[in-house]
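Subject: Putative lyase

B.,
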Amino acid sequence: MTELADKAKTLLELHKPGDPVILPTVWDAWSANLAVSAGFTALTVGSHPVSDSIGKPDNEGITFGELTTRIKQITAAVDVPISVDIESGYGEDPKTLIDGLIDAGAVGLNIEDTVHSEGGRLREAQEHADFVAALRAASDATDVHVVVNARTDLFLKQVGDESDRVDRAIARMKLCVEAGADVLYPVGFHDDATQKRLTDELPLPVNAIGHPTKNNKAALAALGVGRVSFGPLFQMVLAERAAEVLAPWK
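Prediction pasted inline below.
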């Protein structure tokens, strides 16, 4: 447990606004080894690429048990801090989620506010914060400070009027701060002004999604971002390159 506690501490300390930690999004032992061999010292596991890797759909098309089985394979293969996208929780209670992640060797999580098991509804702002608080309490009951990355899909789902969407996202994220989140993830590809406003007005490191070949670390760093992950885009880029390599052999 001490080793995991140390990894959790390391993961949290890597989040530096203006000097973001880059967490390549992986899905199995092979992709994790690929990223570590390239020099990355922490990783995140994405729900979409994991689901794709076992032939099932994203949006909780797999079970939490299927996810943790894959996490155990990854943590057995690489000795770096691992954060895991747990979607909206797979219908499991926070203690089960925290215990399952720690048992699998993970030290961080993403929790989103889209409830896939209930028709894709968006949790109310306080409802989502309450879930974050319950995850924090479950983590605090262990020896591992699981790094909680609270995500909102307001931008991704284009919820409500665009004119006040940033205001609502900031308000929603601030409730997650009060609930004990460590990182904030208003997911979406934002223009520079919006991204800068998010990093300026939110009191914790902000996670931005990055495209592996179309974005760059320096530009996101200049906007104050504290963490960058790729979602399913790294896997998609590799799939495109594979198609290019294989095409002449048809």
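The first helix runs from residue 2 to 13.

T.
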